Amino acid sequence: xxxxxxxxxxxxxxxxxxxxxxxxxxxxxxxxxxxxxxxxxxxxxxxxxxxxxxxxxxxxxxxxxxxxxxxxxxxxxxxxxxxxxxxxxxxxxxxxxxxxxxxxxxxxxxxxxxxxxxxxxxxxxxxxxxxx
Length: 132
What we know:
Layout: H1 2-23, H2 28-55, H3 59-79, H4 83-100, H5 111-121
């Protein structure tokens, strides 16, 4: 089950990257943040039965920390403050949590980190000129 969730997350990240490259949405960072949240939630949902069987009540925080972490950049964007910092902190926490749980379910959460890093990197990308 963990392998399936990991492969699904990787495929999801690749699809989001393809969509961003082909469609070039106006607010790419928003698409990346929402996609990271969606992939994290779907991975957590897929791993819930396995994690509850294995860890019982501890599944709440084992799966809850990545979901809340992926939610922070989306909330920061909605508030309009410190979205870059939220992207970087979320990527760092998700990476740490994924490595901490790396022998179990943690690796399935790591692909979403790529989207958060891409969102943060998009902050420094040159903006296209609107002058004609």
